[in-house]
Write a structure and sequence with these properties.
This protein has one domain: TIM Barrel. The protein is built from nine helices and nine strands. The protein is an alpha/beta fold and 253 residues long. The relative contact order is 0.14.
């Protein structure tokens, strides 16, 4: 039996077939628009009840590959966004295995968005490039279904694997988020610069916005900004903040 409450940010996950309650909450990290010098979006990052790593929760047998858990997460994020009065876009990570079953619970997410008053058009669902994309036909169908409902989509960790490029041939998301491994020390790495340039040209022609993710140093930011990147995310701009919306660090621009 599913049990939910709405009194606290760290409400327990509803019990499924067990007696274990797993408490969790979320931290938020901004995605920054360097041209407007303001926050464009916040990514919701799962955490333990006190802000600690949630790795043990995600590996729990009651949670792993659970459609119910994934739906609870999305509902909880939208509820928290409403409580925090989030007025920007909201990035939510979506596991590929859930996308294969999305027709089973997309309506619930749609209703949660309406119930909390958070605009559907401000929700960006992120799919990780490195995840298994075995049944692309179903995956593509459900990605398009998300957009039909009014949600935006992004491919996360793009640039170091093969699945993201294969997916991009058949489906063009609203955003791609460049992998941290490509961003790190890019100002001093000619090979990374060449790979970046190819991805950038491709996205420009396909009208896909790029987010440089994992930017930790000013030199990385300056090189990417000069190369034409507008959207940034990383410790250089702001650390994730537990159950709150952090501001941009001072003097980053």
């Amino acid at each position: 039996m599913i049990r939910t409450t709405n009194t606290r940010f760290n409400d327990p996950i509803p019990k499924t077939k067990g007696v274990i309650d797993l408490n969790f909450s979320y931290a938020f990290q901004p995605i920054v628009d360097s041209q407007k010098q303001e926050i464009s979006s916040f990514e919701a990052l799962i955490r333990g009840p006190k802000g600690e790593s949630a790795s043990s929760i995600l590996l729990h047998p009651l949670v792993k590959d659970s459609v119910i858990f994934d739906e609870i997460c999305r509902r909880k994020i939208l509820e928290m966004a409403g409580r925090l009065k989030l007025r920007k876009n909201l990035n939510i990570n979506l596991s590929t295995h859930i996308l294969y079953q999305l027709d089973m619970n997309i309506t619930a997410t749609f209703k949660s968005s309406l119930k909390t008053g958070f605009p559907i058009e401000n929700v960006i669902f992120e799919v990780t490039e490195t995840e298994n994309l075995a049944d692309q036909r179903v995956l593509l169908q459900n990605l398009r279904l998300l957009q039909d409902f009014g949600f935006k989509t992004a491919i996360d960790d793009f640039g170091m694997g093969h699945s993201g490029l294969n997916l991009l041939v058949k489906y063009q998301p609203n955003f791609i988020k460049l992998d941290r491994n490509l961003i790190s020390n890019i100002q001093n790495d000619r090979v990374k610069q060449i790979v970046f340039s190819g991805v950038q040209q491709m996205c420009e022609k396909l009208s896909i916005d790029i987010v440089a993710e994992g930017v930790e140093k000013k030199d990385e930011y300056m090189w990417l900004k000069k190369a034409g990147i507008v959207l940034f995310q990383g410790y250089y701009f702001a650390m994730p903040a537990f159950e709150s919306l952090p501001p941009i660090a001072v003097n980053v621009f």
